[in-house]
């Protein structure tokens, strides 16, 4: 999980960086999160230190790197599971013996 850093910006909520993968994560106020690939560490450091995060982003990140819209927010990690509906089934309620199923339990 990428460690989020909250930033002061009218458009950007949080940023994070994967040093090993050279990936910059940007979460916008709209809750959409994008990953920018191949971003040098120096760009991330400059982003963190910039007085205007939006201006820095526009000049140094936007349309400069391969970009993906994340379907799962990497800053939320395992916490997203809480929003999933889970159904529990008692093992004896399902008879799969005639289906050739073996689960090794």
What is shown here, in short?
By secondary structure, the protein is an alpha+beta fold. The chain is 16% helix and 23% strand. A hairpin with a 4-residue loop joins strand 2 (12-18) and strand 3.
Q: How does this model look, in words?
A:
It is built from two helices and five strands; from the N terminus they run ββββααβ. With 105 residues, the protein is α+β, with helices and mostly antiparallel strands. The protein has one domain (5-93). Strands 1-2-3-4-5 form a five-stranded antiparallel β-sheet, with helices on one face. Mean pLDDT is 79; it is low at 78-91 and 101-105.
Instruction: Give the N-to-C terminal Cα separation.
Output: 31 Å
Beta-strand percentage? Answer: 15-25%
Order of helices and strands: EEEEHHE
Low-confidence parts lasting 5 or more residues at pLDDT below 50?
78-91, 101-105
Query: Based on helices, strands and strand pairing, what is the structural class?
Result: alpha+beta
**Envelope shape:** globular
Q: Please give the largest β-sheet.
A: 5 strands, antiparallel
State Rg: 20 Å
Q: What's the helix count?
A: 2
Neighbour order of strands in the largest sheet: 1-2-3-4-5
Fraction in helix:
10-25%
Average pLDDT reading: 79
Number of domains in the coordinates? 1
Total beta-strand segments:
5
């Amino acid at each position: 999980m990428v460690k989020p850093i909250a930033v002061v910006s009218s458009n950007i909520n949080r940023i994070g960086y994967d040093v090993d993968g050279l990936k910059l994560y940007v979460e916008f106020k709209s809750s959409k999160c994008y990953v920018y690939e191949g971003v040098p560490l120096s760009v991330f450091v400059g982003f963190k230190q910039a007085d205007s995060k939006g201006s820095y982003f526009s000049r140094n990140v936007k349309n400069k790197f391969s970009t993906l819209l994340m379907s799962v927010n990497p800053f939320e990690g395992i916490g997203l599971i809480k929003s999933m509906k889970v159904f529990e089934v008692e093992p004896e309620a399902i008879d799969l013996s005639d289906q050739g199923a073996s689960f090794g339990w």
